[in-house]
């Protein structure tokens, strides 16, 4: 039972992080859009890049990488729910592509539909909120019902393996950064 608890806590932590990141993005967009008088390519490009980073984070969550694949084929209810979640993600991805196309066109042609781009970014955020809500209200409770202790153990083992690999990557990067800083300090003396 501890493995199920660990898995659910890890997923919930990622859900909370996604909601927090999305909330900050939306605040940033809304505060800037109020002051946006006309075409500001730099802001729109920055906003788009932040959304792309957030989208990448969402697609790399443990829920997305491990839990949903484990639920495939387990029940018709799970399949239908996964299809709904994927439809929300597909709509969100279309909105990001639209924004990217508009920004590319603006760079090449010098024209952009600022209101449509801003609306598309906000619509993307709304789709992601809908997906997160559905994951929390429907997917996680369904997973708790469908999976046995052995299933949760397997899922938790994958989570732990990923966490260990991420820890190792961070450990290798930190000394490399420190040695670069030490060389920089030594070169300035």
What does this structure look like?
With 189 residues, the chain is mostly helical. The chain is 90% helix and 0% strand. The protein contains six helices and no strands. Helix 1 (2-35) packs across helix 6 (149-188) and helix 2 (41-59) packs parallel to helix 5. It is globular and about 55 Å long. It starts with a helix and ends with a helix.
Average pLDDT level: 85
Radius of gyration: 21 Å
CATH topology: Four Helix Bundle (Hemerythrin (Met), subunit A)
Major sheet: size, sense and barrel closure?
none
Q: Approximately how much helix is present in the residues?
A: over 70%
CATH architecture: Up-down Bundle
The structural class is mainly alpha
**Tally of individual domains:** 1
Can you tell me the residue ranges where pLDDT is under 50 for at least 5 consecutive residues?
none
State the shape: globular
H/E element string? HHHHHH
Beta strand %: under 5%
**Care to count the β-strands?**
0
Please identify the top-level CATH class: Mainly Alpha
How far the N terminus sits from the C terminus, by CA atoms, comes to 58 Å
How many helices? 6
